[in-house]
Design a protein that fits this description.
This is Metallo-beta-lactamase domain-containing protein. It contains 8 helices and 19 strands. With about 325 residues, the chain is α/β, with parallel strands linked by helices. The protein has 2 domains: about 180 residues, Metallo-beta-lactamase, Chain A, CATH 3.60.15; about 130 residues, Rossmann fold (3-Layer(aba) Sandwich), CATH 3.40.50. A 7-stranded mixed β-sheet has the order 7-8-9-10-11-18-19, with helices on one face. α1 links the parallel β5 and β6. It starts with 7 loop residues before the first strand and ends in an 11-residue tail after the last strand.
Length: about 325
């Protein structure tokens, strides 16, 4: 019998018949294991959800209450004939890799992950396994992310050089915004940071779960003179809309791994691209596979071809899984 024959990839997610449960399904299912709270992995409408307490809190805030079963990192549970555990993925608050053990085989569904230090979430923990199911969002050799501190320093330098303006940073509301804030605090930036209203609830949720974010204030209705010389965070869609025109001559920035592609920055009218990603880059994807040393690698989404070719040249069996509904969420 082929390795992993008890795992069934479907367009809408991964089904594990021996546990009668789906992993990150894009459609409502009776039973779901969820790796993290981004909308391309989590959604409302499931009959029952197993996830970390933090992910369940995020899902409750974004998609409404569900029949929730919290699973803490390192905790193991039996679902049918499968042993299931959750370990940190290092992607966003509460993000987890799901470890499945059945028939003497060990399968790790990594969800989205990164290997860089992040003050807002637990770091990725490599897990030895027979099959490693990995993302490939930045699965091309051109994607090598710069040092986080260098990008934050670029942001602070722009702020210091333009005391009569503000720096408006587009950042995804879950994970990226809180990471930018926490990284700024680690660099000694203790000034108030202003927020678009869409950022408020998730920032409060992070604080409720022990992530210190410092002095945060809503930007709406605040005089321009008060916001000048400060950093403002907003969803990417608000960078060039009517809301942003109320700010004092903003320097438009965007925090995303896609800022490596100059055309993306130009399309969004971004003056200050910040290459800051919550996904592993090419070097991190390949070094993680070498570290884990699985017999097989299954690639769920992203730039599958290059990563599969890289695996094959190293005698690692690899295949692409045709899953629908996975997006980068403005990473």
């Amino acid at each position: 019998m082929p390795l992993g024959a008890w795992i069934e990839p479907h367009p809408e997610g991964i089904y594990v018949p021996a546990a009668d449960v789906w992993i990150d399904p894009s459609q409502p299912k009776p039973r779901a294991l969820v790796t993290h709270g981004h909308s391309d992995h989590a959604r409302g409408g499931h009959g029952a959800v197993w996830a970390t307490p933090e992910t369940l809190a995020i899902m409750d805030a974004r998609y409404g209450a569900q029949a929730a079963h919290p699973v803490r990192y390192g905790e193991s549970m039996r679902m049918g004939d499968v042993e299931v555990s959750f370990v940190p993925a290092g992607h966003v608050l509460g993000s987890a890799q799901i470890v499945l053990e059945h028939r003497g085989e060990r399968v790790v569904v990594s969800g989205d992950y990164k290997r860089r230090s992040d003050p807002t979430c637990a770091p990725f923990e490599p897990q030895a396994c027979d099959i490693f199911i990995t993302e490939a969002t930045f699965g091309l050799p051109v994607f090598v992310h710069p040092e986080t501190g260098d990008e934050i320093d670029k942001l602070l330098a722009a702020l210091r050089a333009n005391p009569d303006r503000c720096v408006l940073v587009g950042a995804y509301a879950l994970g990226k915004a809180q990471r930018v804030i926490a990284e700024l605090r680690q660099r000694g930036h203790d000034d108030p940071i202003y927020l678009h209203g869409a950022m408020q609830r998730l920032c409060e949720l992070y604080v409720e779960h022990g992530v210190a974010l410092g002095d945060l204030r809503l930007a709406t209705g605040v005089p321009k003179a008060e916001i000048a010389g400060h950093i403002v965070l907003a969803p990417p869609g608000a960078l060039n809309d009517r809301w942003s025109r109320r700010l004092p001559d903003p320097i438009t920035a965007m925090a995303s791994g896609w800022m490596r592609i100059r055309q993306r920055a130009v399309q969004r009218n971004v003056e200050l691209p910040l290459i800051l990603s919550d996904h592993a880059d090419w070097d991190e994807l390949t070094s993680t596979i070498l570290e884990i040393a699985p017999q097989e690698v299954w690639v769920t989404h992203g730039r599958e071809d290059a990563l599969i070719h890289w695996c094959m040249t190293r005698q690692i069996k690899a295949r692409a899984l045709d899953l629908r509904g996975y997006e980068d969420e403005d990473d």
